[in-house]
Design a protein that fits this description.
There is one protein chain. The protein contains 6 helices and 23 strands. The longest helix is centred in the N-terminal third of the chain and has 45 residues, at 2-46. Helix 2 (113-146) runs antiparallel to helix 3 (151-184). With 432 residues, it is of the alpha+beta class. The protein has a 6-stranded antiparallel barrel with strand order 3-12-15-14-13-16.
């Protein structure tokens, strides 16, 4: 009976040991699986990334700035009446050429004629009184010669006669002023030119001096440019000016700075500049849009392609390659004007630096890189050299090879020793 119980107990213990061993084997497998992935990620992160690069140096860069402008006449006159009134007729239209002395517009004379007639009547009254005082003065002189009047009475009559003469002259001056008002109601051109704008139409009531129309003198044309504050200094130091016109394709006109306003416009905050056009011909029409090119001369600068730039924390940076450690570091730069080859660098780089030209957004600080054969290496060539598939950002990238890691096996000694000890203890307990 005792032997039967011992056999049953031994069978139960052996079954427990087998189940425990199987469970530990499964745990070992499940623990080994993530270890393989971690080792692979570590190996992949340590693999150098192939990159394109360039060695920067100084190159001659032409500094050019463009400003919009408009063709305007050198001399432009605003015509207005010297007296107030209602415009009765306008005798010219926009675009019409006028000659010196030609009538441009006429005011209604109904307001001026009564004043002229009144002044003419005042002249007549003053003239009649002057004649009367002159006759009285002659009589006083005759009586004074005969001793019938005193000398003082003669002097008083002479003064009265002089005052009457002055009143006649004043009345005549007022009449001339009224007649000038009638003459001023006719607006005439002072010089030959072309009408470029109308500021008032027939029937409008205008004040004295108000602009009615504008006439540009025929002759020299120029370009008016509204210069922003940041470009005023460039305008003064420019080596030369050239103008192009959309209406005249393929032709370049030389220009020179004639005038630069010392004060900014109150509304636009720009400075008005006037450039004389050298060799202007009949193809240039007033009002044409122009593009003025400022030649600021050539300068030595470092130029990098736009693909080498990346922005971080509102600052522009590039990746520099350390030759010794073959790692990259980010350097903040200050950029200048754009060129056909890229963008000029004002500060942050020096000749001889190695700059990554592709994949700037995929790199990180201190990452090891593998330099390809300069910027001439294409994505396909990089893949042929073992760099891996090309990336849409950089054009060249490398995927590190994942080395196989043997799965850790459960220790036979550890698991077997524990099972054997348990079985031995159970056997000893079952002994009689």
């Amino acid at each position: 009976m005792k032997n039967k119980k011992a056999i049953l107990l031994l069978a139960f213990v052996m079954g427990t040991v087998i189940v425990t061993a199987c469970g530990k084997k499964d745990d070992a497998k499940s623990t080994a699986a993530p270890a393989v992935g971690q080792d692979a990620v570590a190996v992949k992160a340590e693999a150098p990334r192939p990159v394109r690069y360039m060695q920067v140096g100084l190159s001659s860069v032409s500094d050019i700035t463009y400003l919009p402008g408009e063709v305007r006449p050198r001399f432009e006159q605003r015509y207005g009446f010297r007296v107030a009134g209602k415009i009765a007729r306008r005798l010219v239209d926009v675009g019409q050429e006028v000659k010196a002395g030609q009538v441009l517009a006429v005011l209604d004379s109904q307001d001026v004629l009564p004043a002229i007639n009144a002044q003419a009547a005042q002249v007549a009254v003053a003239t009649t009184d002057f004649k009367l005082q002159q006759s009285e003065l002659r009589r006083q002189q005759e009586l004074r010669d005969k001793g019938f009047v005193s000398g003082a009475a003669l002097e008083r009559q002479a003064a009265t006669s002089e005052a009457s003469d002055a009143r006649v002259k004043a009345a005549q001056s007022q009449l001339a002023n009224a007649q000038n008002g009638l003459n001023f109601q006719t607006l005439r051109a002072d010089k030959a030119g072309v009408v470029i704008a109308l500021d008032a139409e027939a029937g409008s009531v205008v004040s004295a001096g108000q602009s009615v129309l504008r006439v540009a003198q025929l002759g020299e044309k120029e370009i008016v440019v509204n210069v922003p504050e940041r470009a005023v200094g460039l305008l003064k130091t420019a080596k030369g000016f050239a103008a192009t016109f959309d209406a005249i394709p393929g032709k370049l006109y030389a220009a020179k700075l004639r005038e630069l306003s010392p004060a900014a416009d109150a509304a636009s905050r720009t400075y008005t500049a006037r450039l004389s056009i050298i060799g202007a011909d009949d193809a240039l029409k007033l009002g044409m849009s122009a593009t003025v090119r400022l030649d600021l001369g050539a300068a030595e600068a470092i130029v990098v392609p736009n693909t080498a730039l990346y922005t971080r924390d509102n600052s522009t940076r590039v990746w520099l390659v350390d030759r010794a450690t073959e790692t990259v570091k980010a350097v903040e730069i200050k950029t200048g004007e754009s060129t056909n080859d890229g963008i000029s660098v004002v500060s942050g780089l020096k000749p001889g630096d190695l700059v990554v030209t592709a994949g700037a957004n995929l790199l990180r600080l201190g990452q090891k890189v593998r330099l390809l054969d300069g910027a001439s290496v294409s994505p396909q060539e990089g893949g042929a050299k073992g760099a891996g598939p090309a990336s849409s950002d950089s054009g060249v990238t490398g995927n590190a090879k994942v080395l196989p890691t043997p799965s850790p096996q459960p220790s036979a000694s550890g698991g077997g020793s524990k099972a054997t000890a348990t079985a031995t203890a159970a056997a000893e307990a079952a002994k009689p």
